[in-house]
């Protein structure tokens, strides 16, 4: 939901800045790709994505409702737009479950080939 935008922004920031990609990119590049999770323009961008009819965003939550990952898909374009997991929860199957759910959403709409540009 739209109320998840701030947590999604936090996961995006943590994933970009906290994992191995941080070893290959300058801080300026990382900040342009994943600005501070408190950046209002970034939170608003995720809100607009969540509200759009074009893109579907799904989240992974712990029992305490903490969002630890998210994925996004544009089914009409056959495209997975995002898949990010908070580094504290990597290697636990969270990303695989999100990807499987995105694939199931696509299959339900008759889409059996998806692309992901990285």
UniProtKB/TrEMBL annotation:
SUPFAM superfamilies cross-referenced by the UniProt entry: Acyl-CoA N-acyltransferases (Nat)
Protein name: N-acetyltransferase domain-containing protein
Superkingdom of source: Eukaryota
Domain N-acetyltransferase: 1-118
GO molecular function, one term: acyltransferase activity, transferring groups other than amino-acyl groups
CDD domains, alphabetized: NAT_SF (cd04301)
Pfam families, A to Z: Acetyltransf_1
